[in-house]
Amino acid sequence: MDVTIPEISRRLIQPPASQQLAPTRKVWICPMLHYFSARPSGAVACMQVCLLMCLALSGCQKKTVAAADPPPPEVFFVRPSTQTVTQHEEFSGRTTSSRTVEIHARVSGYLAKANFQDGADVKEGDVLFEIEDSPFLASLAQAEATVKQMHAHMQGLKLQLQRSEKLIRTKAITQEELETLTYQTEEAEASKAAAESARDQAKINVTYTKVRAPFSGRINRRQVDPGNLVKADMTVLATIVAPSPIYGYFDFDERTILQMRRSVEQGKLKAAPDFEAKVEVALAGEENFSLHGKINWVDNQIDPGTGTLRSRVAIENPNLLLSPGMFVRLRVPVGPQEPALMIPEESLGSDQGQRYVYIINANNEIEYRRVDVGWVTEGRRVIRSGLKLEDRVVVTGLQRIRPKTLVAAKPYIKTPAAQQPAEKDKTPAEKQSGAVKTTETAKPVENPIASKH
Fold first, then answer.
1. Which of 188, 209, 241 is the last residue of a domain?
2. In total, how many domains does the chain have?
3. What is the pLDDT of residues 12-56, one digit of tens each?
4. Would residue 296 count as lying in a domain?
5. Which alpha helices (H) appear in 111-253, and where do they start and end?
6. Is 61 within the bounds of a domain?
7. What do you get for the CA distance between the two ends of the chain, in Å?
8. Under a CB-based contact definition with an 8 Å cutoff, are residues 309 and 252 in contact?
């Protein structure tokens, strides 16, 4: 069954018979649509009217205004500074005592006393252990009695020899008897000397019953408790180490060795142990180098397995901070003092192991530049190549910029950290962690060099 468009329009607009108010009265929602739908071209005209109404409504909406471009990001810059510095290389090392002695028993016997506290500092000559000395005192008394006996026997033979020398002149005794008496006298003298040596050894053994500290230092715990049997030259009683100076052993690599030897040939450095430059020492967890020392020994050959040369630095330990076996960082001067360009460490970035900086050119645009870096001195990095004195190096906001970015450049100064906030001003997180906020702000300053750009 075919249904014309006017019929469809009429059915859509005209209410159903069930909803009509009266059978003889028709209610039209849109008289205009009814007017056009009653004519042959009413459907087309109806669609046109709807389109015009939609266009009229859309024309009443507000036009969207394009957003303005954001201002260029603000960055702060520094200029490289020239400073006379000494080239350093950092090495890792382990400390050992400059003198370490294991205390052994010199005589065998039962240990009677231990006269020290474990881990205490002892002085040279202090009695550390005592071994029962009664057997050794008895041996000494016996040796002294033997010496007296040998002395009396020798004296008697000497008197007989003197009388025999007189009797031989009168032919009262034979020459053979005189010679026999002479040999017996000499034998008695030798026996007396042997007895005296045995007596001296007995005296020494008595002194060995008291084990004394060979030098001043720090002793560890006792290895044997009183009442146990100790054997001469076998039993270790304790260990003493000298607290100062402390030796730090580290390894030079071949490149540094050659560099230092060339400087020695040119007269810029002195060879160890005449190496006068101070070696700076930092302990574990320290950023600054608080201790100092000097190189006093270098090995005579390179380890073929590691390609390194073992060296030693003597470190003064006045406050006894160092102990043998500690890990230390050593900063060793490997070259003479010379001028160098330096920039703050925080202005450097890293790209696959290559260090770089962002430079602000004359048009205030960012440039990416790789640099060859050296060592760090007091938070500033030595730049071997890649920068000039007039360059403007970005020091803050490196994460917000990219090459060819237009920026608002301002000089940078590092202000001291703000005072620590009072307890009432701390945030709950700070109170829980015990942390204190510090601030580091960048302020623009008047710089005659920067004003040219």
1. 241
2. 3
3. 455 555 545 444 444 444 444 454 444 545 555 555 555 555 544
4. yes
5. 134-167, 175-208
6. no
7. 86
8. yes
